Amino acid sequence: MSAALDRARAIVRQYGWNATVYRALDSDLEHWLSREGDALVGFTRQASTRVVAGAPVAAHERLAQVAEEFEDQAASQGERVCYVCAEERLLSAAPGRYAVVRIGAQPVWDAQSWAGVFDAEPRLRAQRNRARNKGVVVEQWDTGLVVTDRGLAACRTRWLASKRLPQLSFLAYVDLGKAPVAALGDRRLFVATRGGKVCAYLVASPIPSRRGWLVEQVVRCPAAANGTVELLVDSAVRSLAADGAGIVTLGLAPLAGATSGGADAAGDGAPALPSPLAGVLGPLRAHGAPFYDFVGLEGVKSKFRPERWENVYLLSREPRTSARTLYAVGAAFCGGRPARVLVGGLLRAMA
Predict the structure, then answer these.
(1) What's the pLDDT score for residue 264?
(2) Which residues in the chain belong to E strands, given as ranges?
(3) What gap in Å lies between CA 123 and CA 177, rounded to an integer?
(4) Helix, strand, coil in percent for the chain, rounding step 5
(5) Could you give all domains of the chain from N- to C-terminal order, each with its CATH number?
(6) Do residues 43 and 30 make contact, with C-beta atoms less than 8 angstroms apart?
(7) Which end of the chain, C or N, has fewer beta carbons within 10 A?
(8) What percent of the chain has pLDDT above 70?
């Protein structure tokens, strides 16, 4: 790690609050440090816009000032700024500064209460026991193996081949080889095997300021036994709780609760909230299954009985969210080639 990345990781370990904070260190992002050297922003540039991974990483009392410093520096270069997967803390630190789009929600549990919540749900217990009875075993592995182990790579390849969209970039990629070695070592890797062969794995990354963990990836071979995911998630969260974790989140469910009518389409899922783009996001959630199963993913996260859902936002420094901002975000996730990715997804859906 270079001295600059060493400093960036130290900032994340001291002030990291956003669930996606460890992605700010990735090698495919640019890394901006505040003038005082006490804050970090990880971002990519698309369509003359700095697309930020999450939010600035800074002490709470410095957050608004750091964000303004970063935005002013971008403006001096003719660039706009938007924050993807930002959470309530940035929104409340600078009220009225940003155009706001609620892009989904993430389920959250008190890690110390997880076991009681899980064990009280008969369907979860049944699925976990089904996997155990099929011989599935979960163990914690050295995290570095996620980029070197052939069994994990083969599982990942089969999982990606089952998806309708080609592999995405930015906050949605699954190749953790982009993470600096030291930052990768801060994560936890849990692997489910059956008969000695990898059938699923889970990667969790720290949320340091909240004594929390983000379940960053759950990768499952299509042929894995029923209940493998339930067993894997349960084993991982119990292990994190035993080590003193405060909270755990399964990460963003995109468009969770977004409906054109304002009601919660998932029943016991995330609460629906009004959005300036509700007329677009609601139909996309309901009818976007050929590309991405928004409803199904929310359902998977909901079945673990979250204690609460936390809103996740797209924030942009402009009077209202512009088409340019939306294009920049799409380009960030599509590696700068949104049209190619969407065509690729359509061809897969038609195959």
Answers:
(1) 37
(2) 30-33, 40-46, 49-53, 80-86, 99-110, 136-141, 188-194, 197-207, 212-220, 247-249, 253-254, 308-316
(3) 36
(4) 45, 25, 35
(5) 3-97+321-339 (no CATH), 121-249 (3.40.630.30)
(6) yes
(7) C
(8) 82
For residue 55, how many C-alpha atoms fall within 13 Å in the half-sphere facing its CB?
Answer: 30
DSSP 110-131: EGGGHHHHHHT-HHHHHHHHHH
Phi-psi region of 135 (alpha: psi -120 to 50; beta: other; left: phi over 0): left
Close Cβ partners of 328 (under 8 Å, ≥ 6 residues apart): 46, 47, 48, 49, 51, 80, 82
CB atoms within 10 A of CB 347: 11
Tell me whether residue 164 is exposed, middle or buried, using C-beta atoms within 10 angstroms of its C-beta: 0 to 12, 13 to 18, 19 or more: middle
- Neighbouring residues of 21: CB distance < 8 A, sequence distance ≥ 6: 12, 54, 57, 205, 207, 208
Residue 182: its pLDDT value, please? 93
Rounded to whole angstroms, the Cα distance separating 125 from 48 reads 50
Q: What are the tokens at 170?
A: 């930015």
DSSP 29: S
Which of the four pLDDT bands, split at 50, 70 and 90, describes residue 165?
A: low
Distances (CA, A) of 176 to 76, 203, 216: 33, 10, 10
Name the residue with higher pLDDT: 292 or 33: 33
| Contacts with 12 (C-beta within 8 Å, 6 or more apart), sequence order | 21, 22, 24, 25, 40, 57, 183, 208
Other Cβ atoms closer than 10 A to 150:
9
Q: What is the CA radius of gyration of the chain?
A: 20
CA distance 173 to 183: 16
The pLDDT of 125-154, averaged and rounded, is 97
Q: Please state, in angstroms and rounded to a whole number, the distance separating the CA atoms of residues 205 and 185.
A: 10
Listed residue (115, 107, 109) closest to 246, CA to CA: 109
Residues 6+ away with beta carbon under 8 Å from 205: 21, 22, 23, 186, 187, 213, 214, 216
